[in-house]
Prior knowledge:
The complex is a heterodimer of chains A (200) and B (582). By secondary structure, chain A is of the alpha+beta class. In chain A, the strands form two sheets. In chain A, strands 5, 6, 7, 8 and 9 form a five-stranded antiparallel β-sheet that branches. A four-stranded antiparallel β-sheet of chain A has the order 2-3-1-4, with helices on one face. In chain B, 38% of the residues lie in helices and 16% in strands. In chain B, the strands form four sheets. A six-stranded parallel β-sheet of chain B has the order 3-2-4-5-7-6, with helices on both faces. A six-stranded parallel β-sheet of chain B has the order 11-10-9-12-13-14, sandwiched between helices. In chain B, strands 16-15-17-18-20-19 form a six-stranded parallel β-sheet, with helices on both faces. In chain B, α1 crosses α2 and α11 runs antiparallel to α14. The longest helix of chain B has 19 residues. The radius of gyration of chain B is 24 Å and the shape is globular. The chains are: A alpha+beta (200), B alpha/beta (582). Chains A and B meet through α1, α2 and α3 of A and β14 of B. The complex binds flavin-adenine dinucleotide, thiamine diphosphate and magnesium ion. Thiamine diphosphate binds next to α16, α18 and α20 of chain B.
Amino acid sequence: MSGPPARTMTANGSEPRKHTISVLVENKFGVLSRVAGLFSARGYNIESLSVGETLDPTVSRMTLVVSGDEFVIEQVTKQLHKLIDVIKVNDLTDESHVERELMLIRVNAEPQHREEILRTADIFRAKVVDVTQVSFVLEATGDEGKLEALIELLRPMGIQEIVRTGKVAIARGPKTRPRKAEPAKRPRVSEDPRVVGFAD
Amino acid sequence: MRLPGARIVLECLKREGVDIIFGLPGGAVLPIYDALYDFQGLRHILVRQEAAAGHAAEGYARATGKVGVCLVTSGPACTNLVTALQDAMMDSIPIVAFTGQVPTHLIGNDAFQEADNVGITRSATKHNFLVKDGKDLGPIIREAFHIAQTGRPGPVHVDLPKDILVKEAELIWPDKVTMRSYNPNYEGHAGQIKRAARSMVRAGKPVLYVGGGVISSNAHAELRELAELTEIPVTTTLMGLGAFPSEHPLSIEMLGMHGTYYANMAVHHSDVLIAVGARFDDRVTGRVDAFAPHAEIIHIDIDPSSISKNIKVDVPIVGDCRRVLRALVEAVREEMKTAGDGREGRRPWHAQIAEWKKTQPLRYDWDDDVIKPQYVIQEISNLTRGEAMIVTGVGQHQMWAAQYYKFKHPRAWFTSGGLGTMGYGLPTAMGVQAAHPNKQVINIDGDGSFQMNSQEMATCFVEKLPVKTVIINNSGHGMVRQWQRIIYKERYCAIDLPGIPDWVKLAEAYGCVGLRVTKPSEVVPALEKMLSTPAPVILDVCVDKDECVFPMVPAGGANTDMILTPPTREVRDRAEKSQTGF
Ligand SMILES: Cc1cc2nc3c(=O)[nH]c(=O)nc-3n(C[C@H](O)[C@H](O)[C@H](O)COP(=O)(O)OP(=O)(O)OC[C@H]3O[C@@H](n4cnc5c(N)ncnc54)[C@H](O)[C@@H]3O)c2cc1C
Ligand SMILES: Cc1ncc(C[n+]2csc(CCOP(=O)(O)OP(=O)(O)O)c2C)c(N)n1
Ligand SMILES: [Mg+2]
């Protein structure tokens, strides 16, 4: 007898990978702990989280990096959307977008290494923001790959400390200018049968 | 209009149509109780412990379809309330809970009776609020009620610092609530509904799997219409009992861990499974990879996160059960015009189900000397003709009540399904009785569960709430005993409750009526006496403590692995090897 087809979510799921999720929230007391609490209560892993105000001061944007397979990510987005203070959830991963992170890194600066550190910083367009006899502090921005590469190159010199902001991300602009006359018509999300259904 | 905050709270409750609040005072909410002193039109029911206020509000809410309200003080009162909040959260019951808080300037100071109330209740509520300005009271209370009763219903908590209650502020009452971040979707997707109709009409072995969402959306009439139109058999979850009459020819009763043999077999062999307002709980599915393995699954639910959470769904329909079912009935009618009604093709399916029903009905062995608990429930069902409001504790008695009571109506069954909160019975029954003073409210409780909130007998007596409690007294934590018997090789540990207290005397101590029966022949007369007593009653029914709830799906087992009779050694060995070992 052959077994029944698997119905478990993970068994049918895709490979886990990192997703960048952008969340618009009401800028209200407690909203950060609601989001953070959701992750701990449901056992999802947040790899990074950054929060800041938007153009509208009553709205904040959170950028989350979460790893999980397709089903986990689907639940994460739905659960985020279910929080009353969440206005919009957008998984940017498969959309055209730009990601950046800022990193401050303090590295040993022995005389024999000072030149090389400066050269490396230059190549990575990192700024030297503090100098002493024995150390440099560099400021670097970039996507994850770039920052990781910089860290690897500086590691042999002796890294004292690293501080990173976590990722922020923004969707790229449309390639063509939308014609003024007809405002871009977006179907209501709830009318899209592929989406299991968020309220707009 | 400028009023002290406490008055604003009461005015707002009145405008929300609240008529009863369940509560218990303390320092931080004294301004509200002071305002209540000469406030007209709100009945306050004083409970004996705050969790009871929360459960009573749940009972009131489920019974009426309105929002239940409770009011307690800060710190320990709020922590006492947490169990009821989480209970309402798991079972999607709309309540609004108010707690007192230390004055705003003392928050965070470890002040007397301070607790981080909103921090503590955050994960136990659908949403919560800390009021920091008196002018926000109206809008927040309005939002709280709106959130509690719309979309997927649930508990909302409002924390009220004392200074906000004392200071005067403007009473602001928005005409309607608009929230850019919260707009539940009620209408199902027309294309998906059509797809569902097509599958249903063409199905050879369909089953409707119905849950608590049908009750909270008052969709029982639409459900019945759909079932009768298509002649699709209906199984309900524990929370869905009453959504479809148990004795309807299409009813196959409850499914899941302690569901009927025929319900579990039907679901397992189904080719189309239509889940309506049900959430594929693990007590329903058993091992997920063996759940309804051959079925195309259609799922109607208002909460997108319920869909494809545990089980992958083929046709998701996000929307309100009532509206979607109405549209589905139309779509099915339309579909039948071209495809025929499909009933002929389902004859073998109905015959198969009838066969399962005949070979494995719910059953127990009669005994002339010892009372069988199932028999007690059957007689309660007979004597009340399925018209009573039935409340339970948690354990074996709860499952027997679910299996043997013949439900006729929605909003007449109250049980803690998701959280399984022992002690839920009596306070919830109080809330139901307060909502329906003229209905027969029967709390079928366990001797263990009842002790977790028995103090509420005092409330029943004082507030003239003639709740009838039937204690299915098996001298212990029967459900735990059942697991230890079947899974843990009869190594009984910490389950005995040897006849303490004397329930008859306890009832009398509370000014209520106590009765006891020990023989099967005494059961009916005692029930009759209980039902005709106009006061609160405890009827202590001493039952066979060895009785187990069957069928039983060992946790982690597939639903087809049901144990149907007291286990042999072999079954026990198999259960022991089950995935989770319970
Ligand atoms: C000892 C014990 C044994 C148990 N054994 C069993 C068992 O054998 N069988 C069993 O079934 N349960 C059993 N349970 C209960 C079980 O744990 C779950 O509580 C229950 O199965 C959930 O029922 P439900 O799926 O109807 O969901 P509910 O918890 O009632 O949830 C309702 C669902 O409907 C949705 N909904 C709400 N409102 C609407 C609306 N207006 N429109 C559309 N959708 C809506 C919600 O989003 C949710 O998904 C047991 C519990 C205990 C304590
Ligand atoms: C608050 C709480 N504590 C513990 C449990 C675990 N539990 C489930 S059933 C049960 C035994 C219930 O005993 P009783 O109320 O007498 O019911 P019976 O099973 O005997 O009918 C226990 C301890 C629970 N569900 N709730
Ligand atoms: Mg017991």
